[in-house]
Write a structure and sequence with these properties.
By secondary structure, the protein is α+β, with helices and mostly antiparallel strands. Helix content is 29%, strand content 17%. The protein has a five-stranded antiparallel sheet. Strands 2-3 form a two-stranded antiparallel ribbon. A hairpin with an 8-residue loop joins strand 8 and strand 9. Helix 2 crosses helix 3 and helix 4 packs parallel to helix 8. Lyase that catalyzes the covalent linking of the heme group to the cytochrome C apoprotein to produce the mature functional cytochrome.
Length: 317
C-alpha cells in the first residue's frame, strides 16, 4: 500500500477499532515527498492467477515500472517481478549511495496468511527506502523511513482484520451471515474488535492469495460519495480516497469447498484530531463481482441500519 509517515510506535488511540471499519491514526503528517498523496497510473497488465511465492513480500503494489531505454521491452521488466504483488523478486538490502542514516534490514512478519502457506512479510526499512529511491522519491527524510514502515504495516494489519470479520460472517453462507448481521454492528456476536484471529477450528482460515494497488481508479462507491459531496457538501463533504487496493482472498466452507473473493479497500484521510493528530479510515468490503457478494454487503449495511432505526438495543435490554 502507499507509504506513510508517523511515529514508529502507533498511539494507543490508533489501535481502537470502530465498527464496521477501524479508525486508524498516525501521529504526524506525510512529508512532501510521500508518494501516498501523489497520483500514479495503475497496473494495466493482467497478473497470472498462480505463481510461486518468494520468501514473503509486502502487501503493496506499486504503479507501472518504467522501462529504461537500454532494456529491450517492458515484458523483460515484468519478468523480474513477483506476479502475486508486482514487487521485485529480490528487494535490495544494500545501503543506498549517499545514504547517511543506518536503516534496519530486519523484516517484520505479518499476521496475514499466504495462499500457499506461511505468512506475508513486510519490507525492512532499508528495502522500503531503496524502493522509494527506485521510484524517484529522493526527497524523503531518511530518519522517517522506520516510522513510515510502522504505519504501513499497521494499516495492512487493520485491513486484514476487517477482511477476517467479513469472512467470519459469510464464509458459512448467507443464512449464517444474516444471523450475525441482523442485530447490527453493536449487537453482532462477531466483532471487528476480535481482530485477525480465526477461532473456528473446523474451517480453513481465509488466506490472502494476491493483491494489487489501483491508486488511479476510484471504486464505484467512492465515485458515488464524491458525487454526493458535490450535491450535498454539508452532509457528504470529503476528500477522495488517497489510495485503493484489491485483495484476493481464499474462502473455504465447512465442506472444504473453496473459492476466491475479491475485496476492495479505500484509504481515506479524515479530519485531524483537536490535538492535530491525523486520522485515517479504511473502507473494506467485498467487491460486487457476484450476486452473493452484493447480498453480503446489503445484509451488513441493512442489518445495522434496521437494528439502530428500530431501537434494537433498547428491545434487547
Amino acid at each position: 500500500m502507499g507509504w506513510f509517515w508517523a511515529d514508529s510506535t502507533p498511539s494507543a488511540a490508533a489501535t481502537a477499532a470502530a465498527a464496521p471499519h477501524p479508525l486508524l491514526r498516525s501521529d504526524a503528517a506525510p512529508p512532501p515527498g510521500c508518494p501516498m498523496h501523489k497520483p500514479s497510473s495503475s497496473l494495466k497488465a493482467r497478473l497470472p492467477e498462480a505463481a510461486s511465492t518468494p520468501a514473503g513480500a509486502c502487501p503493496y503494489v506499486p504503479p507501472d515500472v518504467p522501462t529504461p531505454a537500454s532494456e529491450p521491452s517492458k515484458s523483460s521488466v515484468f519478468s523480474k517481478l513477483n506476479p502475486l504483488n508486482n514487487m521485485p523478486m529480490h528487494l535490495s538490502q544494500k545501503r543506498a549511495e549517499g545514504q547517511t542514516v543506518t536503516l534496519p534490514v530486519e523484516r517484520e512478519t505479518s499476521t496475514i496468511p499466504k495462499g500457499d502457506g506461511g505468512l506475508w512479510e513486510y519490507p525492512s526499512p532499508q528495502q522500503m527506502y531503496n524502493a522509494m529511491l527506485r521510484k524517484g522519491y529522493t526527497d524523503t527524510p531518511q530518519d522517517a523511513v522506520e516510522s513510515m514502515v510502522a504505519v504501513h504495516n499497521f494499516l495492512n494489519e487493520g485491513a486484514w482484520a476487517e477482511i477476517v470479520e467479513w469472512e467470519r460472517r459469510f464464509s458459512q453462507g448467507l443464512a449464517h451471515g444474516w444471523a450475525q448481521c441482523r442485530r447490527g454492528e453493536e449487537g453482532s456476536l462477531a466483532s471487528a474488535a476480535l481482530g485477525p484471529r480465526w477461532e473456528d477450528a473446523e474451517m480453513e482460515e481465509p488466506k490472502l492469495v494476491r493483491f494489487m494497488g489501483r491508486p488511479g481508479e476510484l471504486t464505484p462507491k467512492a465515485q458515488m460519495l464524491q458525487l454526493l459531496s458535490r450535491v450535498y457538501p454539508r452532509k457528504f463533504e470529503s476528500e477522495p480516497p488517497f489510495d485503493r487496493h484489491d485483495w484476493f482472498v481464499k474462502r473455504c466452507n465447512r465442506e472444504g469447498m473453496c473459492k476466491e473473493v475479491r475485496y476492495v479497500i479505500d484509504y481515506y484521510s479524515g479530519p485531524p484530531e483537536p490535538t492535530g493528530e491525523p486520522v485515517f479510515y479504511l473502507d473494506v468490503r467485498p467487491a460486487v463481482d457476484t450476486p452473493s457478494a452484493a447480498v453480503e454487503r446489503l445484509m451488513r449495511w441493512g442489518g445495522d441500519v434496521w437494528w439502530r432505526a428500530s431501537g434494537g438495543s433498547v428491545r434487547e435490554n
